[in-house]
Amino acid sequence: MDSKLLELLVCPVTKGSLIYDREYQELVSRSARLAYPVRDGIPVLLEDEARTLTDDELEHWAAAA
Q1: What is the pLDDT of residue 11?
Q2: What are the CA-CA distances from residue 38 to residues 20, 28, 63 (Å)?
Q3: What per-residue confidence (pLDDT) applies to 39?
Q4: pLDDT at 4
Q5: What domain range is 52 assigned to?
Q6: What whole-number distance in Å separates Cα of residue 3 and Cα of residue 5?
Q7: How many domains does the chain divide into?
Q8: Do the strands 26-29 and 42-43 form a parallel or antiparallel pair, or are they unpaired?
Q9: Torsion sign over Cα 60, 38, 16, 6
């Protein structure tokens, strides 16, 4: 994921920042508790395509910030 692109992208639900999870190929929105998939290098920023973060995942990303 290009860092310049990541700076421009925001969560479509909260308009908050996103964190790139390289291992799972997802963009994480802590404020919305959602993870958006990145498919073939293309972020899919649709709420219907996102998965809900578990409490453990949310704690992980809160600690990483």
Answers
A1: 97
A2: 9, 10, 23
A3: 95
A4: 87
A5: 3-64
A6: 5
A7: 1
A8: unpaired
A9: positive
CB-based burial of residue 15 (10 Å sphere; 0-12 exposed, 13-18 middle, 19+ buried)?
exposed
Identify the burial level of 61 via C-beta atoms within 10 angstroms of its C-beta, where 0-12 means exposed, 13-18 middle and 19 or more buried.
Answer: middle
* Token duo for residue 18: 């996103």
Q: What is the pTM of this model?
A: 0.90
Q: 26-29 and 51-52: which strand pairing?
A: unpaired
* Nearby residues of 40 by Cβ (< 8 Å), 6 or more positions away: none
CATH for 33: 2.20.25.10
Per-residue pLDDT tens listing for the chain (65 residues): 788 888 899 999 999 999 999 999 999 999 999 999 999 989 999 999 999 999 999 988 888 76
